[in-house]
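Hi team,

Filling in the usual template for the complex we talked about on Friday. All components are listed, including any nucleic acid strands or ligand strings, so the model treats them as one assembly.

SUBMITTER: L.P.
PURPOSE: interface mapping
COMPONENTS: two
RESIDUES: 671
SEQUENCES:
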Amino acid sequence: MSILVDENTRLVVQGVTGREGQFHTLRNRAYGTTVVAGVTPGKEGQDVEGIPVYNTVRDAVEATDANTAMVFVPPRFATDAIYESLESGVDLVICITEGIPAHDMLGIYTHLKRGNQVLIGPNCPGIISPGKATVGIMPTQVFQPGRVGLVSRSGTLTYQISKELALVGIGQSTVVGIGGDPIVGSSFIDILGRFEDDPDTDLVVMVGEIGGDEEEKAGAFIAENMTTPVIGYIAGFEAPPGKQMGHAGAIITGSSGTAQGKKEALEARNVQVGTHPTEVAEMVKQRIG
Amino acid sequence: MDLFEYQGKQLFARHGLSVPSGEVAETPEQAKSAAEAIGGTVVVKAQVQVGGRGKAGGIKLAKDPAEAGAMAEQILGMDIKGHTVHRVWVEAASDIKKEYYASVTFDRSAKKPLVMLSAMGGMDIEGVARDHPDALARLHVDPFTGFQPHHARWLVYHAKIDEGAQKGVIDALTKSYEAFIALEATLVEINPLIWTADDRVVALDAKVSIDNNALYRHPDLAALQESVTDDPQERMAQERGVTYVKLDGDVGILGNGAGLVMSTLDVVALAGGRPANFLDAGGGSNAEAVVTALEVLLSDDKVKSLLINIFGGITRCDEVATGLLTALDKLGATLPIVVRLDGTNEEEGRAILAESAPSNVVVEATMLSAAKRAVELAKEAA
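RESULT (copied from the run log):
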């Protein structure tokens, strides 16, 4: 098994006729993902190398039974695109677009939590279940099928860690890039819970970075809810401290947010934290190799 | 995008929040005529985006226009924690009965707007939050229902705002929330929000941050954007749209994606080196972006070696290699450059470097070995 995307994924792509949208849609299909439709308003009736294009997501879903949507439209249209996909009834929306206004995400997040649909991203590289399907922009050659789950806030760091795992002969069940924005549809906890329930995931690597408190919350979740071992990595020990405007932010977050704070919070919950990507792969190898 | 106090106050006034009448001045003469126009005693306040300007001597009272000019003379050009004062804000002095604290912010943990209010404003509010948590009333707001009168009442009662000021504080909170939404702010903070001797509630300071991603919907706010750094490389990077932060080491860093660049800094430090900067060339780095980034890095003569760490996803390694060669051709840099290329078109990228790169370019196979090599080379060159 794997989580979120697999051989049952039926993908509709919003922004399929754009340059980047088309390029990555075809790469996803070439990897094995079932791409059933694309959406670009005004271009219904056309096709992208055999993928039929519809005017609206609702029409595309009715015609093709798509269950997953990928959003690949520019930021000023992406909020509408996410709502459109959610309201068309797909189970999963993956938003690659970077630069969605934070106030828009407040609304999307609040809407999302009132239902059962899943949003991954925005500002994320997508998901890959190696050997089965991929949705997004990940360089697929880095990944191989295996039994380690990987969840990360950073795209390129996801590739780096996967490469390090490959070098010690370890593959992945599913790799999920949850996105780097302050508000994303799915948190570490949401994905960790799915890996915990996946019989084919033996260990999870969680790749965090400075800012926010999602790693700290994940630490508590792991201690209370997970039997699957988790190995952590946090980037940003040497990062310049962000200039904080005003005091409200500091009041809310207290000391959390720094790499050191996150590492300590995870270790306090008995989660091993690697100091660099190569060491993370070595730790994984030791635990399950 | 962080705004200066005077910009925040001008926006507050536009959203119906009460602020002292004031004017911005860039010269002592302008400060003098501002004081004349305002009349009476004024306060001359340094406009810098850093806390502690009062203690640093950046806020002065002036009894008359001549004194306002003299104070502005002292404050303009002053260095406050590395920020040069280019402007002062001259405003009518206020007769303060009590100082409160009010803010609307973006709570990324709860993923909701958070409104906070305290009757213990003016002073160290973080200390108040720590030592007297009950004195700081906090309330999350559902973004779909918005800020309702009952929210404001709850906050005012729980923060124990003085009775005579309650109506004014409720109004100030409501308008602050309206401004937070209308401006697509990530922070609206007023410290202090004062209760005056004549029973008005007035914003005596303004800290406003706007979401950069939303600026396309607010051309008036986007126009306020200006560079606040005095560092030549940071200025150059801003002008060219490169994400760059200067650090104090000697190993220059260029990578793609914020997470990988942060990890690169960490690995350089673990290898015993000190990174000179953070530079994220971005997700879709093409040859041109690499040339621009290298121009910024190579203009810093503290940099003794350069580490280029790329993992291509959208970014193509052959583009990076071409960009590097173009930049070296153009800039003629001779310092040691260590390159690690992985991901999309890695073979092509490495082939380009093997074919045409000058002898100061070293290619390493892994991120860890590349970091170690860059640190060694920086030490040799130092």
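MY TAKE: The longest strand of chain B covers residues 96-107. Chain B touches chain A through 62 residues (CB under 8 Å).

Thanks, L.
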